[in-house]
Amino acid sequence: MRKQAKRGILKGTQAHGRQSVRRCSETGRHFAKAAGKTRGVWNRFCNSNQGCERKNNMETMGNLRRTHYVGALRAQDAGTEMTVAGSIAKCRDKGGVIFADLRDTTGLLQLIFDDSTAKDVFEKASHLKTEYVVMAKGVLREREAKTDKIPTGEVELFVTELRVLSEAQTTPFEIRDEINVNDQLRLKYRYLDLRRPSMHEPIVMRSKIGKVIRDYYEENHFYEIETPMLIKSTPEGARDYLVPSRVQQGRFYALPQSPQLYKQILMLSGFDRYFQIVRCFRDEDLRADRQPEFTQVDMEMSFVTEDDVMTMNEGLVKRVFHEVLGVDVQTPFLRMPYREAMNRFGSDKPDMRFGMELCDVTEAVKDSTFVVFQSAVQAGGSVRALVAKGMADKLTRKEIDKLVEVAKTYGAKGLAYTRWTNEACSSSFEKFLTEDEKKALYAAAGMEQGDVLLIAADASWEKACTVLGAVRLAIGEKFDLIDKDAFAFLWVTDFPLFEYDEENGRYVAKHHPFTMPKDEDLDRLETDPANCRAKAYDMVLNGCEVGGGSIRINDPALQSRMFAALGFTPERAEESFGFLTEAYRYGAPPHGGMAFGFDRLVMLMLKRDSIRDVIAFPKVQNAGEPMTGCPERVDEKQLDELAIAICLPQDGEQTPEA
What we know:
Mean pLDDT: 90
Structural class: alpha+beta
Number of strands: 22
Strand order of the largest sheet: 6-9-10-22-21-20-17-11
């Protein structure tokens, strides 16, 4: 009877096991089918698990609990019993002695097993491989052979108890910094890439920077208030990411490009000072320093002027740099009007880490017969020059040709030059100048023997400046003129209120439609929009805009004038922004604020080359994410619920690329 019962139990257990395997198999195949890659996904699933009936050699933590993180351990901690946890970065069996480097989020620590280690622990250690997840208990002691290659190089942990919590397959690339792996592979296995110290540290530092920002604003009486993620789509600005509504079919939310309107509403709600570290979204083409979803440090204040907002945020930057990097940033920052920045550096975000300023030589060549200069002057434009002092030997004709290509990418037809070496003077245009014009040009530009003179002329003053500004940066980068260790801050102020959109034949807001005009320019709003300036300001660091803001309009009548200047009909303005203009009518304090690009700020602070390095899970050039494969197609059922039909071109399906 007992044997029959036993056989029955065994039979039932085996059947249950087969059902479990079958359910596991069905689940795996269902997942693969949903992804549209049945065979590949199923093979990876089975290979990674070595079959559903694979023996499990992993242990649990049991009663072990971590007592120390390894990064801060030093010689003074020797003799301490502790438990550490992490992954095996490297393991070395020296025949009777096993060394294993344990990596946790704070650093590395050497584990040691020798002939005095318990036999079962030593046996377990002999099977350790890279990326195994372990907990190790033991006594910290000083190393016999110390090293300064890692901060914990004076100590090691003599292990008395070892738990292998998770085994690991061989990784697609080595988990160390000194490797050359293409970006596509790194991003596909982002969770492995983030284990490397050089990629792990920026994410940790980002968290620390965020904490300092929160502390600073809270100490200065700001409230951290969340604003909606599903908002109304409004005109102006970049392209919105749209979210269809299932409940109100045919209608769409937008994901916020910034919390601009909500933070102004909060000032009208009596909160006085607001901030948040917020996710924002823009559906635009990606660049090295731009992502479709990004993080913004957003703030707004009531009863303030431009100087008040700038001073408050200088204090923030000073605090962050001091607490995170130990760098003392000098305040107040230099403040430079937009027009001066363009005239001197050819950019509204000038890199102040090196000189080589632009100059205006229009007067010196205004009577020249050289058609490039002549046409620019006759069109009311400008002729701008840049002198590369003492660089005639470095800026060869080949290098100058490269600079001409740089100029063309910014809309120039070419670049006039004179190269004056010790042997001779060569020029692309001086044959068209008289001796007096040549002397006047040299004097205006400060040209001397050994220099190279570069000139851009255009009917647009801004374009001529912008072209030479780009050439200036190219020279600075190529010939190491930029102090890479410096942090050069400034404010650029008094921006144009409008800029002309050639494609649509109208003026658009340089920043946004809620920016307050300068008091002295209010009368020009309708009659001379090109010369209206804004109470707007950008914070610039090392040639990058890290933040920008303005004082906002709080007068409904002035806001209506602004909308009219931008070409809005009263009906369209009411439809798009009626909720804001109505709120103004119930009393609106003067207010202003700004927003920092958090990702870019962290990138510059840590001196990283790419914004991807400081974002845990970045997108790539086509706005895809290689790790998860998004964006992905969705089920027809989901589309039907949203009353949406998809019409795709016949070019085939794109896949994420780095």
